[in-house]
Amino acid sequence: MRIGIYPGSFDPVTLGHLDIIYRASKLVDRLIIGVLTNSKKSPLFTTQERVLLLEEATKGIPNVVIEAYQGLLVDFAEERQAGMIVRGLRAITDFEYELQLAQTNHKINPKVDTVFLTTSVEYAYLSSSMVREIASYGGKIDQFVPACVAQSMYEKYNLRRG
């Protein structure tokens, strides 16, 4: 069985993330979405909220499971018997950082390879931090995130949307 992991903080999950999830799910038998618990960041959503939002957003993809993790990604991959890490690339600046991570992960655990998927053109500009900023000012984010995420963000920022 081919098992892949698509890791991230997903704070919030965007349509760009979902594009990568849909496409990566076709490459493996099981795709684990690894929701990182990073003690160095102050996320808008708790880890459990991010897991629940991802479960809602991916409920139509049968081979996708959502799991929270902390620590080294390669350790999580080994625990789950995953041989592939999936990463999305928006621009050349992403590639430099992601290549360094991929090479480091491969050095730590040579059984785990990283596969890069380029983001679809319509999402190449999109980032979670941009969505958070727009939402914090009451801007419309429905075109950037699934409906369940938009609603949850408006609630977090105490905004009412029609």
Can you tell me the CATH class?
Alpha Beta
What's the CATH architecture name? 3-Layer(aba) Sandwich
Averaged pLDDT, please?
94
- What name goes with the CATH superfamily? HUPs
Please outline the major beta sheet.
5 strands, parallel
Strand elements, count: 5
Essential attributes:
magnesium, 162 residues, ATP binding, alpha/beta, cytoplasm, nucleotide-binding, single chain, Rossmann fold, five-stranded parallel sheet, 40% helix, ATP-binding, globular
Care to describe what's here?
By secondary structure, the protein is of the alpha/beta class. It has a single domain, classed as 3-Layer(aba) Sandwich (Rossmann fold), CATH 3.40.50.620. Helices cover 40% and strands 19% of the residues. It has 6 helices and 5 strands; from the N terminus they run βαβαβαβαβαα. A 5-stranded parallel sheet has the order 3-2-1-4-5, with helices on both faces. The mean pLDDT is 94.
Give a summary of the structure in a few sentences.
It is an enzyme of class 2 (transferase). The protein is an alpha/beta fold and 162 residues long. The chain has a single domain, classed as Rossmann fold.
